[in-house]
Every structure is written in C-alpha cells, then in structure tokens.
Design goal:
By secondary structure, the chain is mostly helical. It is 72% helix and 0% strand. The longest helix is centred in the middle third of the chain and has 25 residues. Belongs to the sigma-70 factor family. ECF subfamily. InterPro entries: RNA_pol_sigma-70-like, RNA_pol_sigma-70_dom, RNA_pol_sigma70_r2, RNA_pol_sigma70_r4_t2, RNA_pol_sigma_r2, RNA_pol_sigma_r3/r4-like, WH-like_DNA-bd_sf. This is RNA polymerase sigma factor.
Length: 188
C-alpha cells in the first residue's frame, strides 16, 4: 500500500483526487466493510450489493476533489445509498421490459418504506431541508443508527446530531405541511 493508513479520510480523498490509487485502496479498506454490511441490510441480492459497492468507489475516484472535511463516512454512504436506489430502478425497468413469472416477489416492508421516502411526499419534503439535516435524519431514522453511531459516521459531535435531528424534524414537519396544507385533525 501507499503508506496512507495513518492519514484521515480528508487527506486520503485529497490524494485520490490527485490520482493516487494506493490512497483509494486504503480508503476502500477502511470503509468497504461497513458499507457492504449496510447495503446488504437493504438489498438481499449479493451481486447488486457488490456492484453498488464498486460503483460507489468508482464515483469516489471520479469526484474525490468535491469532498470537503476530514471524515468521509456520511459522504460515502450518501453515494452508496444513491447507487442502490439507481440499481433498484434499473432492476424495476428491466423487470417491466422482460417480466419473469417466478420473479413475482413481494417487496419487503423496508423496501416499501424506502421507496416511499424516495418518491412520496416525505421524499419531496426531505429534499426541501438542508443536506446536513437530511444526513442526520437518514442516519438516525432510516438507517436506525444510535446518536453515537451517527456522530461517528457523520464526523460530528453527539450533541450536534441531537440538535440537528430536532431541527430536521421541525423543518420536515413544516415542509410536509406545505405539501399537504389541509389540517389532519380538522378545525381546532
């Protein structure tokens, strides 16, 4: 390896941006394990998980210069999650083109919830809140991480995770209210 083991993620990403393949290998060794585990919890097809993981690091190779900060965990997960959504969309398109009778599997509850988050009102509302608040919500609500795990993943203090989660819920409620202005409980 290129002797990058002691460097933080930000230093590795700067080296990757400069074309250092050994730095990419070190970044992969550092993060591929947990990324693979999280992707596998969301997708039962090991081939798709491998492809998404590979696509994630190809994207890192191409766009490392765009990352800011010392920690890469949240950024990597955002890329991986988007690649997984893209892979699922591609699977859905190919299933519509060539349906297989025995492939009539019912989507899991988690898949239905994630699709609702991606495509429904909640997804639209999530797009309206700031990226740092959205990251915290995804880590704590969608991924089910503890405050400590989310803090480690995102590279921010636990107190910041808590305050951003509170602010994110408030902004999400307001964004949802704008999308659905009718009161839920009728007149008060």
């Amino acid at each position: 390896m290129g002797g990058h083991r002691e460097k933080d993620d930000g230093a590795l990403l700067r080296a990757v941006a400069a074309g250092d393949q050994a730095a990419l290998a070190d970044l992969y060794d550092r993060h591929a394990g947990w990324l693979h585990a999280r992707l596998a919890r969301r997708c039962a097809d090991p081939e798709v998980v491998r492809e998404v993981l590979q696509d994630t690091f190809v994207t890192v190779w191409r766009s490392a210069s765009g990352h800011r900060g010392a920690e890469a965990g949240g950024w990597l997960w955002t890329i991986a999650a988007r690649r997984l959504v893209d892979a699922r969309r591609a699977q859905e398109r190919s299933a519509r083109v060539a349906p297989e009778p025995e492939a009539a599997a019912v989507p899991s509850a988690e898949d239905r919830v994630l699709a609702g988050l991606e495509y429904g009102d909640v997804g639209t509302a999530l797009d309206r809140i700031s990226p740092e608040l959205r990251e915290v919500l995804r880590a704590t609500v969608v991924d089910g991480l503890t405050t400590r795990e989310a803090a480690r993943l995102l590279g921010i203090p636990e107190g910041t995770v808590k305050s951003r989660a509170r602010r994110a819920r408030t902004e999400l409620r307001a964004a949802l209210a704008q999308l659905n202005p009718s009161p839920l409980g009728g007149p008060a």
